[in-house]
């Protein structure tokens, strides 16, 4: 069964998708209206709620946050196409399904998974939040004033990153952040998962501490001037590595 619905953007300030186990894809395209395409078994697709409430387009499975039976033989894929001119907020949440996002812009973008993996390419927003528990996050070409990344056991890998302030924490998942340009501040917390930070800057205000993990810097001149970009990284058994990479 399939559903295909369209919405004008003029009265909307946010798009909120909340799924229990369905696969979710959201991307910008050459369209004038927001398009929600759904495919899956008849019962699941029929139960999906798609409504506009107080300026928010809500796409939600009825069992979200209430009950979840992953043993049921159901399947559903949800695809959200937004105009390339979209500049409002986006909140995308899945529990066990894959979440894929690409080409998105907005004032705030939140991508949140529990056990499903998260894939993001070409995101641009004032604030971006990427969260997972056991799913892995892989992101490329992300631009933001503030990026918040959080995981428990899932790995966090970011390439071609352009941010002013990075805030991240993980328990056992590994973290890798490859910055293409300069930044203002990085705050990274890890328990047992190793951390690798790379940037093109060679002089930084750095404080890195790990209780039992190894701490290393390569090609970095550590200074204390007030105008220097700041790196603060702490760990328990995590290894911490800061690298300056120049083209």
Core attributes:
20-stranded mixed sheet, 60% strand, mainly beta, 247 residues, 2% helix
Q: What does this entry look like structurally?
A:
It is a single chain. With 247 residues, the chain is an all-beta fold. The chain is built from 1 helix and 20 strands. The chain has a 20-stranded mixed β-sheet that branches. A hairpin with a 2-residue loop joins β5 (49-53) and β6. The longest helix is centred in the N-terminal third of the chain and has 6 residues, at 42-47. It starts with a strand and ends with a strand. The mean pLDDT is 93.
Topology record:
Elements: E1 2-7, E2 14-19, E3 23-29, E4 34-40, H1 42-47, E5 49-53, E6 56-60, E7 76-83, E8 89-94, E9 99-112, E10 118-131, E11 137-151, E12 156-170, E13 175-179, E14 185-190, E15 195-199, E16 203-210, E17 215-218, E18 221-222, E19 230-235, E20 240-244
Parallel strand pairs: 2-6, 2-8, 3-7, 3-9, 8-9, 9-10, 10-11, 11-12, 12-13, 12-14, 13-15, 14-19, 15-20, 16-18, 16-19, 17-20
Antiparallel strand pairs: 1-4, 4-7, 5-6
* Strand segment tally: 20
Work out the strand percent.
Answer: over 45%
User: What form results from the Cα inertia axes?
Assistant: elongated
Indicate the structural class: mainly beta
Largest sheet: 20 strands, mixed
User: Could you report the average pLDDT, rounded to the nearest whole number?
Assistant: 93
Percent helix among the residues? under 10%
> What is the CA-atom radius of gyration, in angstroms?
20 Å
What separation lies between the terminal Cα atoms? 51 Å
The topology string of helices and strands comes to: EEEEHEEEEEEEEEEEEEEEE
Low-confidence stretches: none
Number of helices: 1
């Amino acid at each position: 069964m399939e559903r295909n619905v369209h919405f004008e953007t003029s009265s909307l300030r946010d798009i909120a998708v909340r799924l229990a186990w369905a696969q979710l894809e959201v991307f910008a395209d050459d369209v004038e209206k927001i398009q929600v395409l759904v495919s899956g078994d008849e019962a699941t697709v029929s139960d999906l709620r798609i409504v506009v409430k107080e300026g928010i387009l809500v796409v939600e499975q009825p069992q979200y946050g209430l009950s979840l039976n992953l043993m049921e033989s159901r399947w559903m894929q949800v695809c959200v196409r937004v105009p390339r001119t979209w500049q409002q907020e986006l909140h995308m949440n899945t529990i066990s399904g894959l979440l894929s996002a690409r080409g998105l812009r907005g004032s705030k973008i939140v991508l949140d998974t529990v056990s499903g993996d998260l894939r993001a390419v070409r995101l641009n927003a004032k604030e971006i939040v990427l969260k997972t528990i056991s799913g892995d996050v892989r992101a490329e070409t992300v631009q933001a004033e503030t990026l918040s990344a959080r995981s428990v056991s899932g790995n966090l890998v970011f390439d071609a990153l352009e941010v002013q302030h990075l805030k991240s924490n993980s328990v056992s998942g590994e973290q890798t952040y490859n910055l293409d340009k300069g930044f203002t501040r990085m705050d990274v917390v890890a328990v047992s998962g190793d951390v690798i930070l790379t940037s093109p800057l060679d002089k930084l205000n750095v404080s890195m501490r790990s209780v039992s993990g190894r701490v290393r810097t390569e090609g970095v001149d550590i200074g204390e001037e007030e105008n220097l970009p700041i790196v603060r990284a702490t760990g328990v058994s995590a290894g911490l590595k800061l690298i300056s990479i120049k083209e």
